[in-house]
Amino acid sequence: MDKHNFKRAALAVAMSATASLAFANTPNSPSDNNANQDVEVFEVLGERRAYTGNFAPLETPAANQVIDLQTLSDAGVLSLDDALDLSASVSRQNNFGGLWNAFSIRGFSGDINLPSGFLVNGFNAGRGFGGPRDLVGIASVEVLKGPRSALFGRGEPGGTVNLTTKRPTYEKGGYVKASLGSWSQLRVEGDYQAILDKNEDIGLRLVGFYEDAESFRPEVETQKQGFYPSLKWSISDQTNLTYELEYTSQELPFDRGVVYSDEFGFSPRDVFVGEAVPIETEVLGHQLEVQHDFNDEWSFLGGLGYRETSLEGDAFEPQFGSRQTYFRDGETISRFFRSRDFESDYLVLRGELSGSISTGSIKHRLIIGADYDKFDNTLVIDRYRSRFNGDLAALTPDDISTHLLLNINNPVYGVNLNPDPGANTNRNEELTGYGIYVQDQLELGENLQVRLGLRYDDFEQDLTNFLASPADTVTTDDSRVSPQVGAVYSLSEGTSLFASYGEGYRQQTGQDFAGNQFAPNITESTEVGVKISLDSVFESAEGLLNVTLFQVKQSNFLVNDDRPEATAVGFFSIAAGEAESTGLEVDANIEFENSTSIWFSYAYTDAEFLSTFADVDGFGFTINAGDPLINTPEHQASIQAAKVYDVASTQLRVGGGLLYVGERNGWVGSDFNLPSYTTTSVFTEADFGNNVVLRLDVENLFDKTFYTNSYANVWVEPGTPRSARITVSYKF
C-alpha cells in the first residue's frame, strides 16, 4: 500500500532520533527505581488531564473506575480486552475475527462497523484498523461511565475508556522482561527512562515489545511488535511539552471462532475454521501536548493527535444460513473468501482552558474547550462464495476446492488459497466534526456541588461508493447541543451522594442497502449513586466503594444488515430503532495495611430493544421490543485479590482472580444464547531482592470451555483453555 513506505520512513526517523538521544551523554540524576517492586506508580505533580478537570473522586458526579498499573499487573493482562474484563460494566463484543478491540459499556457498543472508540490521554484514538491494543505502554485504564457528553461529545453511548500512557517521569532506569508461555509463546518487553540535559528539563522514555505465539487452534500464529517512545520538556516552571509516538505492527489470523447448530452443538474449539493466511495491521500515531499554568488557578491544555492505520489480507469465513453445510452433517463447514484492504487517517485537535473563579460566596470551577477531528477511512473488500447442495457423504476433491469446505474431524488446509473473488465493497468515508464545550462545577456551600455542562457539535459526512457507475458521493451534515447536569452532596467527610443526567451525540459511519446515510446516534443517560472512601470506615484499609443505579436510552440504533441481497453486493448496516439499558453497579478497590489488596466489580444490566423491527437479517428473525442486546449479560462480576508475604530474603506476591459472565444473546433477533461461564486465574511473583523478579501466571485454571462473544451462530469466539506463562524481569 502506498502509505506503508511513508510510515516506515517516519518510524525510522523517530527511532533513530530517540535512540541517539538515549545513548547521548546524560548527567547522572537522582532516581528512585524501587528495585524491590516490579510495578511503578506514576504521579507527576501539576500535570493536568484533558476533559476531566481536577476533581477528587468524592466530588465527581459520575461512576468512574481507574484500573491502575498494580491491578493490571496482578491480573496478568497483556491486552486491552483482558484489562476491560476487570470492569463488570464492560462486555466483550464481536471483535472482527480478533482484529480489533470491541466492547460495550452498560450494554451499548459504539459504531458496529469500526473498533470501539476509546481515548488515549484524552485524544480520540480508537477508530481505525491498527489491530488490538497491547498494554505494554499503558500506565492505567480508566472506565469513565455515564453521561459525560458535555465534554466527550462524540464518545461511546454507555461511557468512555481512556488509556493513560507511560510518559517520562524524570527518572533514570527501567526494566526488561522475557516470557515463555503455552503454545510456544515468546514475549520480550522493555521500558527505559533517561534525563537528557544537565538541567533535568528533558525526559525520555522508550517502551517496546515483541511477541510471537502459536495457539491452541492449529494453523494459528501471531506476531506482534510495538515501539512507544516519548519526550517531555519542562520549558519553564509553568510550561510542559510532551510528544509521544505509537507504532504497532501485527500479523494476525482472521479467526471467526467456532460454528454452532441446535442439532450438533459447537464445533470443536481446537479446530481452526479459517486458513493460515495472516492479516497485517499497522498503526503509526503521534501525540503532541502542551500544558501552561498561568497561575495556581488557571491553566491551558492543548494538543493534537494524528494516526494512520491499515489492515490488509485474506480470510476464509464460515457461511451463513442455508449455505452452511455444518447444519446438515455436523462435520463439514462451508466457507467463503474475502480479501480486505482498509486504510484510515485520523486527525484530532483540542484546546482546553480550566480554572476557578468566585461570584460572591459561590466558587466556580470551569472547563472551556474546543476540539476538531477528521476521520478518513477507505474500505475495499473482494469476495468469493458458492453454495454446495450436493451429497456431503460423497465429496470430491473438486467439491472441497470449489466450495472451500473443511471437515472438522480431519481438517485439511491450503486446498484453495486463491479463489477468484469479485468486488464487494469499495468506498471512502470522510467524517469531519468540531465541538465547543463548557462545564461549570459550582460549590454551593460546604456540602453541595452542582455541575452544569453544555456542548455544541457540528459534523459533515461524505461517503463515496466507487462501485457505482459513475462513483456516487452522498453528503450529510448535522449539528446538536448536548446538555449535562449533575450534583454531588457530601454526607460526611468520606461519603457522598451523586446524580447526573446527560445527552450524547455521535456520527455513524456507513450506509444502508438503499444507499442512505444514517441519522446521528442520540443517547440519554441518567445515574444516581453513593461513593464511600473506605479509610473513613476502616482504620486498616483505604480505597473507594461506588454503588450506582443507571439508565441509558439510545435512538437510531444500528445493527448489521445480513440479508442475502445486502451481503451479496456490499457491507451495510440497518437502523433498528431505540434501545435501553438499566442496571446496578458495585465497584470497590481496597488496600489493607497487611499488604492485601482486593479489586471487586459487579454489574446487573438489563439491556433491550424498545422497537420492533421485522426480518432484520433475512433469516426469519424479527427484533421485538424487549429482545436483549447482543453479548450483554444480565450479571457480570470480576474479583482480583493479592497479598504480599516475606519469606526469608524473598518477597512473595500471590493472588488470583475470578471472572463470571452470565448467559447472553449471541445473535440479534434470535434465541441463540451464549452460556454463562466462570474462569479462575492465579499468579505467584517472587522478588529476590537483587532486581530480579520471577513470576508464574496460570489462566483458566480449571480448563473451562467457554465462549466470550459472537456475531451470529456461525461466528462464535471460544475462550482459551488452561494456559501458563513464566516471566523473568530485571530492573536497572
Describe this structure in words.
It comes from Agaribacter marinus. Residues 233-701 form the TonB-dependent receptor-like beta-barrel domain. This protein has 732 residues and is mostly beta strands. It has one domain: Maltoporin, Chain A. It contains 7 helices and 39 strands. The strands form 7 sheets. It has a 22-stranded antiparallel barrel. Strands 1-7-8-5-6 form a 5-stranded mixed sheet. The longest helix is centred in the first third of the chain and has 21 residues, at 2-22. It is globular, with a radius of gyration of 26 Å. It starts with a helix and ends with a strand. The relative contact order is 0.13. Residues 9-46 have low confidence and may be disordered.
Question: What can be said about this structure in brief?
Answer:
This is TonB-dependent receptor. With 732 residues, the chain is mainly beta.
Can you lay out the helices and strands and say which pair or pack?
Blueprint: H1 2-22, E1 64-67, H2 69-75, H3 80-84, E2 90-92, E3 103-105, E4 108-109, E5 119-120, E6 123-124, E7 138-145, H4 149-152, E8 159-165, E9 173-181, E10 185-195, E11 202-213, E12 222-234, E13 239-252, E14 260-261, E15 265-266, E16 279-293, E17 299-318, H5 326-329, E18 332-359, E19 362-384, H6 397-402, E20 405-407, E21 422-444, E22 448-465, E23 472-492, E24 495-506, E25 521-533, E26 541-555, E27 558-560, H7 564-567, E28 573-575, E29 579-592, E30 596-609, E31 635-647, E32 650-661, E33 664-665, E34 673-674, E35 677-687, E36 692-699, E37 707-712, E38 715-718, E39 723-731
Parallel strand pairs: 5-8
Antiparallel strand pairs: 1-7, 2-3, 3-4, 5-6, 7-8, 9-10, 9-39, 10-11, 11-12, 12-13, 13-16, 14-15, 16-17, 17-18, 18-19, 18-20, 19-21, 21-22, 22-23, 23-24, 24-25, 25-26, 26-29, 27-28, 29-30, 30-31, 31-32, 32-35, 33-34, 35-36, 36-39, 37-38
